[in-house]
Design the sequence.
């Protein structure tokens, strides 16, 4: 049999690897046939693992929630988007085709992207956006990762509806470090606005005020019955069999709110967060910030019936507006009539700090022989990053001022070209590498704050040599209001070696650090009015974004980036950009 490859790019990407065709709703038949043809052609050289192909069509479709209909941007017409499934060490190729009027990028949240920063996805950080009518193939390998991650748009506020789960199974014949579940279920938590979210943030930017909060929270895209709006389509139903155990893969895809997750009458055993196995512990309430994932084991050990599932807001800064509506779903035991009464549960108060603190401090890495916690014991860079809000002058805004957000009082200014491209090709004038490693002025950070609330502006990066051991103390501030910011670092996992309330004390706080089995993750919910210390090894060359995962704070400037040098030789160096990298 003679084989002709459709194009050189596909041949070079999959040479020497097994290929699996992944069909998702909206993918064209010709694409599937083409990929199957490649599989047949490569059959004699099946060798080094699996390459999985997905096609994401970014399209607009109408959706009805809360008794009103609006157009939303989606992946393949689905909300939430299709689940991307793979195994540890698989290579994934996702062709993203932009059919909407907005520029688009997709971020693969939590994927390490070892040497493949071009596929990370944040607009103007690692790539220019995919313009309307254009496409881009994201090509990355899930090196040493297994668990639940997720993907989402990383431009404008499109991730409100452009998001979905990434499920990474262990390698074949490698078991979970817990009993095999009967079934696995993805639960994506989110927010829903009746209005167009782009109009919401554009209006806020114009006025200089905070944007309107969402109209509802959602569980797998559905808010559940709210007020007078009751529809059979408004609630998600989780079906279980009595006596069976289920692995729930929970994703918080909300734009701006931490959430409590509960199931009436049932305990949940936490076994993983952010694709890192944990020492198991049992709770009745899961606390999860935007950007985080949590896997829990649920055993259907109650009497037959229906039980309420809830997702409700956590915000212990009471002056900050939140959407107080609770999303609801139903846990439905097989054999139960749909008309049976639903066992309810009381949701935690929105300011239940003790529940959030207890959950955070219970998280520990598994730290087994097979899954060790390789915590940096010493550090080369010891950084202190203050996290908070500010107020900048704005002559066209309602009050003559605009809310800003900053790290070390620097509000990040997005460039007009991608930082990674500017770094790789040594383009001058795009960024500087003088991001401050500590506050420019020391003060009582969790007190009332300075009288001057204005922030500095700049596209400033912090420079790291390859393999540097880095400690960052994230210090919340009381400027305007203390908050529990969810901070996400691209390109790395980090260890949460310590956290506490009040101001970090470099003389006494390190004595409380856990350097043995701290939790490892990619997104941390900082204690409100407190601090968290994280450590990571800068073993991934490129430009890596660090930002608050409250979308409103990112919009206001609460973000920065690390520039990590190449190491020695090609295996420690950033790969060259792909030929189809979008242009600005």
Sequence:
């Amino acid at each position: 049999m003679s084989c002709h490859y459709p194009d050189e790019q596909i041949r070079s990407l999959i040479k020497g690897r097994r290929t699996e065709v992944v069909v998702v709703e909206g993918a064209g038949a010709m694409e599937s046939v083409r990929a199957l043809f490649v599989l047949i052609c490569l059959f004699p050289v099946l060798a080094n693992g699996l390459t999985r192909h997905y096609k994401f069509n970014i399209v607009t479709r109408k959706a009805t929630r809360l008794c009103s209909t609006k157009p939303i941007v989606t992946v393949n017409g689905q909300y939430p988007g299709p689940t991307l499934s793979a195994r540890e060490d698989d290579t994934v190729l996702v062709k993203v085709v932009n059919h909407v009027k907005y520029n688009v990028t997709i971020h693969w949240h939590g994927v390490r992207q070892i040497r493949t920063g071009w596929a990370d996805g944040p607009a103007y950080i690692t790539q220019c956006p995919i313009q309307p009518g254009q496409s881009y193939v994201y090509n990355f390998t899930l090196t040493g990762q297994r668990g639940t991650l997720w993907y989402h748009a990383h431009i404008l506020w499109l991730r409100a509806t452009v998001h979905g789960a990434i499920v990474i199974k262990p390698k074949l014949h490698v078991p979970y470090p817990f009993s095999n579940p009967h079934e696995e279920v993805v639960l994506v938590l989110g927010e829903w606005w009746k209005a167009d979210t782009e109009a919401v943030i554009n209006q806020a930017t114009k006025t200089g005020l905070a944007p309107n909060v969402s109209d509802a929270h959602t569980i797998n895209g559905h808010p559940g019955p709210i007020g007078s709006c009751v529809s059979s389509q408004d609630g998600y139903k989780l079906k279980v069999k009595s006596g069976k155990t289920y692995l729930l893969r929970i994703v918080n895809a909300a734009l701006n709110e931490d959430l409590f997750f509960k199931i009436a009458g049932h305990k949940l055993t936490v076994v993983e967060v952010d694709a890192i196995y944990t020492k198991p512990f049992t709770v009745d309430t899961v606390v999860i910030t935007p950007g985080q994932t949590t896997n829990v084991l649920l055993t259907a050990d109650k009497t037959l019936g229906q039980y309420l599932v809830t997702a409700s807001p956590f915000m212990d800064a009471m002056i900050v507006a939140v959407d107080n509506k609770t999303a609801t779903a139903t846990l439905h035991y097989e054999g139960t009539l749909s008309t049976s009464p639903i066992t309810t549960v009381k949701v935690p108060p929105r300011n239940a700090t003790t529940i959030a603190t207890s959950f955070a401090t219970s998280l520990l890495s598994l730290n087994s022989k097979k899954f060790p916690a390789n915590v940096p014991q010493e550090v080369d860079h010891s950084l202190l990053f203050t996290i908070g809000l500010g107020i900048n002058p704005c002559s066209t805004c309602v009050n003559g001022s605009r809310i800003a957000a900053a790290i070390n009082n620097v509000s990040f200014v997005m460039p007009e070209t991608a930082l990674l491209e500017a770094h790789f090709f040594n383009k001058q004038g795009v960024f500087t590498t003088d991001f401050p490693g500590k506050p420019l002025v020391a003060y009582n950070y969790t007190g009332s704050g300075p009288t001057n609330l204005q922030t500095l502006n700049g596209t400033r990066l912090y420079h790291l040599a390859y393999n540097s051991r880095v400690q960052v103390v994230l210090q919340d501030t009381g400027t305007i209001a203390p908050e529990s910011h969810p901070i996400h670092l691209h390109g790395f996992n980090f260890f949460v070696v310590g956290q506490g309330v009040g101001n970090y004390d470099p003389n006494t706080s390190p004595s409380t650090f856990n350097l043995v089995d701290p939790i490892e993750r990619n997104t941390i919910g900082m204690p409100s009015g407190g601090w968290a210390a994280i450590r990571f090894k800068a073993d991934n060359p490129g430009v890596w974004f660090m930002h608050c995962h409250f979308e409103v704070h990112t919009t206001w400037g609460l973000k920065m980036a690390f520039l990590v040098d190449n190491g020695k030789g090609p295996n420690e160096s950033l790969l060259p950009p792909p030929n189809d990298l979008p242009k600005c």
Summary: The CA atoms of residues 481 and 573 lie 42 Å apart.
